[in-house]
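For consistency, the fold was encoded as C-alpha cells, as this record shows:
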Amino acid sequence: MDNYDYGIIGNCQSAALVSNQGSIDWLCLPNFEAGSIFAKMLDDKKGGCFAIVPEGQCATLQQYIPRTNILSTIFEGKEWSFELIDFMPRYHDYNGSYHNPPDVIRILKLISGKPRFKIFYDPKINYGEFPTITIRSEDYLKSYSAKGAYESIYLYSSIPLEVINNGQYYTLEKNEFCNLSYNQKIVPLDMDNIELELELTRAYWMSWVSMGNQFSKYNAEIQRSSLVLKLLSFQNTGAILAAATTSLPETIKDVRNWDYRFCWIRDASMTIRILNQLGHVNVAERFLNFILNIIPYKDEKIQIMYGINGQKELPERELSWLAGYQNSKPVRIGNAAYIQKQDDIYGVLMDMIYEYLLLYRNNALHNIEDLWTVVRTLARHVINNWDSPDQSIWEFRSNPQHFTLSKVLCWVALDRGAKIASLFNKADYAKEWEEHSRIIKEDILKNGWNEELGFFTQSYHGTNCDASNLLMEHYGFIDASDSRYVSTVKKTYENLCKDGLMFRYINEDDFGKPKSAFLVCTFWMIKSLYRIGDKQLAVEMFDNILKHSNHLGLFSEGLDIESKRLLGNFPQAYSHLALIDLAMVLNSEK
C-alpha cells in the first residue's frame, strides 16, 4: 500500500478503510473515536483486519458506485469473477429519522464461474492491546476483549460461520453477505434484508449529492470531495472530524504522528463554509448546534478543538505495542493540542457564522439569539486577547509568537462580527468592532510586512515565509491586486514550492524541518496564483495535483516531495475542502 490504496465507507457514525484488495484495515466502533476493531494500517501483525482472500491469482478493480459512498471491488480470475460491495447503512427511516447503525455490510456478488475464497476475519479490539477472543454461536461470531475495557462485536453471515471462523476456502455459487455489527441483532438477517439496506443507502447518497450545486468543470472531483466531507460529520452531535484516522505519519519513520479523529473549530468551520456554498444546509445547522452546545456563552475559555461528543479533555497517550504505519512510531491517541492557544479559530468560526446567516438567515430564527450571544463572546475574546502571542494555525508546541495569520484572523473575527451586528441592526456593536478591526489591521501592516524581503512573514518582525499568509486575500484582508499581496504570493511560491507542491514553511519547528508537502497549502497557492492573474499556471498546477490523489480521488494531509506518495491522516477534510473551494473559483470565470 504505497499510495494509501484505500477507499472510505461510512455513515456519519463511524467509518472504515477498505484496501483495493478488499481488506478492511481500519475500523472503530461504535463511533469514530472509539477503540479500533481493525487497525492493520498501524501494525500488520497486531492491528487486525477483515479480508477477502481469493484462491489463485486475480486482478482487482475498485471504484465507488457513482455519487455514493458505497465501494465496489471486483475480483477477476482466469475463469471466474465476483464483486465485493462494502458500505455502512445510512438512510431515512419511516418516521424521517436517520438509520445509521454501527454496522459494516459486505455483499459478495457472483459475476461468473465458481470463485473460491476464504475470509480472514481477525478482529483486534481496543487497538489490539490485549487478546481478542472469538466464539461461535448458532447465529453469529462474537468477538470480545479478554482483558481491559470490555468491548464486543458480532459477525452475521449467510456463509457458514464455521467456514469463516476456521479460515476455510468457500465456493461462491450465489450472492452472500457478511454483516459486522457493534450490536447484537434482534431481527434475523437474510439476503433480502441486506439488499434492501444497500438500495436504501444508495438512494440516500444519490439524493444527497443531487441537492448540491453542479459545476461545468471538475464536477466529479467536487462531488467526491463533498462526499468525503459528509462522511467526516458526526450525526449524533454535528461535530466535523479532521480525518478518520490516527497516527498516519506526515513523514515515514518520523514522529509527526497525530490523532485527527476530533473536531477542530477551525477545520470544521472551513468545512461547513464550503458545504454551505454547495447547498448542504443540514450539515451546517447540526454543526452550529454543536457550537452552541460546547461554547460557554459568556465565558472566554474556548478551546481550539473538542471531542466529537463535546469532550473538553483529550489527553494524549502512546500505544507502544503497535509498530505504526510502516514502522512510523509512535502511535498516538488523544491530542495534546487541545490545551493550546490559537487565535485563528475565532475568525474562521465568525466567518462561517456570517456566511451561514447570509445564506440561510430565515432558517436560523429558532437559534438567532443564541448565535448572537456566541458572536459577542467571540468578539469580546478577540478584543481582549488579539495582541498576545499564540501557537498558530500550525500548532507549534513551544515558543508562542505573534503569528501574522493569527492576527489576520482576529481581524476577520471583528470584521465579520461588525457585519453580523449590522445584519441585526446593532449599530453600537458594529461601530465598536469596526474600530477594533481597524486597529488590528494597522498593526498587521506595520509589523507583519517585511519591506526588505518583500512578503508578509510568518510572525511579526520575522524573516520566515509561511503559506498560511496566502489566506490574507482569501478572507478579504487585502486585495489580490495589492502589490504587497502579489509579492507575498510570488515569494511564497519561490521559497516554498517544489515540483508544484507546497511546504507549509521550511524553518525548523519543535520536530525539525518539515519534509513533506502540505496539500491544503498547495490548493491555497493555486487559488492565490489564479487571483493575482497567473491563471494558466494555476490551472496547470491544479490539473497536476489531481493526478496525485489515490485511485479513488481521495487525498490525505500531505505528499512526499520526492516520491509523491500520500502521507498523513486519511482522508483529510482540510485537503478536500480546499480542493472544492479552489474548484469553485476555477468555475467562477468563463
Notes: The first strand starts at residue 6 and ends at 10. The mean pLDDT is 94.
